[in-house]
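Long-time lurker. I teach an intro course on protein structure, and each term I like to show students one example going from raw sequence to a predicted 3D structure in C-alpha cell notation. This year I'd like something fresh instead of my usual example. Would anyone be willing to generate the C-alpha cells for the chain below so I can use it in lecture? Attribution to the forum is fine with me.
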Amino acid sequence: MSNQIERPETVTKNTTSFVIKSLPPCKTKNCSIVSVQIDDYRCIVNSTVQFDQFSPIIGGNDTGKSILVEAIMYALGARIEHVHKSKTETFSVFIKLKVSDGSEKLFQRISSAGVETLKVDQKKVLLKNYREELNQLNVFANATNIFGLERGWESFVVLTPAKFSQLLEKAAGLELNKKLHDDAKRSFEQEKKKKPTGKVRKSANLKKVEEQLNQIYTEITPNPSWKANLEYTCHANSFSGIEMTLRNGSQKMLLMAAGGVDMPVAAVALAVAILMKRQTALLIIDNFQKTFGTEPTPEILDKMEDLSRQGIQMLLTWQSGVMPRVGVRFISTTRALTLKRN
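-- Reply from a regular --
Happy to contribute to a lecture. Here you go:
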C-alpha cells in the first residue's frame, strides 16, 4: 500500500474531506501512555486513569479534564509554572508508559513542600536524567512533540514556512541533537587549529551525534531538503481552507486538505502528526470545541482514530454532549476522577 496521502476529488465549502493511508513503520523507539495515577495534584485526589491508543476524555465544566492533561504533562517532564512556585503543597503523579519494543517504563514526580523527588522505574534520578530517559522514547515534554493545542493555536496556524519548519525540527528532537552536534563540532574545529599540519580525526562523540541527526532526518522524510520545500496555505483570516504539501523532488505529496470552516486547525494538527512519521509519541488536544471552534463530529473522530491505529496515541478532551461511536471506550471524568470539593 502506498504511503501517500491522496488529494480528495472535491473540497467544497463547509465540508472537510481527506484520506489517510498507512504510515511507514517507525524505526526508533516510541511509547504510549498506559495509565496515570494522581495523588493530590491540584483538585484531583487518589485517581488512576487507564488509557487506550485513542482516548476521548469527556466531562462537563469543572470536572478535571484540563487538570488531568496538565498532570500528564507534568509527569512527562514539563515545567508547570504554578506547580514550580508551590512551596506548601504535597502531591505526586505516577505515569506508566508502554514502549514500542513491548517493555514498560515507570515515571514518577513527587513534590513535597517545594522539594521535588523524581523516579524512573522506582530509582531516584535528577530532573536532567528524568528527561533524558523520556527523550529516549521520543518524548520531549517542553512543548516539543507533545502537542497541547488549547492555547496559542492561532499563531501556530499562521506561521511562515520557515518558522513552521523550525517547529517541526524542534518537535522531532532536532533542537537537542543540533546543540550536541554544535558542541562536538566546536571541539573538533579547536583540535584542528591546534594541529594545523596534522590530521585530526572526528571524535566518537561527534560521529555519534552526526549519526543521530542523519537518522532523525531520515525518519522525518526521505528528502533531507524538506525544510526548503515545505509548503502550506491558509486562506487569510477566514480559514476557508488549508492544504499542506511536502515536495520530494518533482513529486508533490498532499498531506492534508480541509475545506470550509469546520476543522482547519485539526487539519494542521493531523498534518503535523503525519509529517512526524510517527516521531510524535502523543497528540493531546485539550478542549476540542474551544481549540477547533467546532464539535467533534463523527467524521473528524473517525479520521483521528484511523491515525491513532497507526502508532500515534491521541488524548482528546471535550465538553459533554457529543459521544464517540459505539465501541470506542471513552473516559468520563465524573467517574474516573475524584475531586476535592471546597
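Some talking points for your students: The chain is about 35% helix and 25% strand. The domain at 31-180+207-336 is CATH 3.40.50.300 (Rossmann fold).
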